[in-house]
Amino acid sequence: MDKEVTKIESDDTSSVEIKVLLFARARELTGVPDLTLKMPSGSTTQKCMDELVLKFPSLEEVRSCVVLALNEEYTTDSAIVQHRDELAIIPPISGG
């Protein structure tokens, strides 16, 4: 009798869900204050931004000037997101 081996390498099982917080102009452009984003395991914050721009093309307007924070600490485009992380998209805020 042969045993069937299940590999856990499919896209469905190797994904993470993160909470994305949108501030200032990013919130205005998307119309939402936050959302849940499902990404493949090992995704970077840059890949998350790519996905967000696909979902909300208007974000392209602020993409080049946003600051990213991962779990309430400023981060880089190359940081890897983990399941249940919180990614904040913070555009420049003007005022006076």
Structure description:
It is a single chain. The chain is of the alpha+beta class. Helices cover 23% and strands 27% of the residues. The protein is built from 3 helices and 5 strands. Strands 2-1-5-3-4 form a 5-stranded mixed beta sheet. It is globular. Residues 5-11 have low confidence and may be disordered.
The counted number of beta strands is: 5
Listing every helix as H and every strand as E from the N terminus to the C terminus, the arrangement reads EHEHHEEE
Major sheet: size, sense and barrel closure? 5 strands, mixed
Distance between the termini: 75 Å
Helical stretch count?
3
Q: What is the helix content?
A: 10-25%
Radius of gyration: 16 Å
Instruction: Kindly report the spatial arrangement of strands forming the biggest sheet.
Output: 2-1-5-3-4
Mean pLDDT: 89
Unreliable segments (pLDDT under 50, ≥5 consecutive)? Answer: 5-11
- Proportion of residues in β-strands: 25-35%
Shape, per Cα inertia axes: globular
Structural class: alpha+beta
Keywords:
96 residues; alpha+beta; 5-stranded mixed sheet; cytoplasm; nucleotide binding; Beta-grasp_dom_sf; nucleotide-binding; phosphoprotein
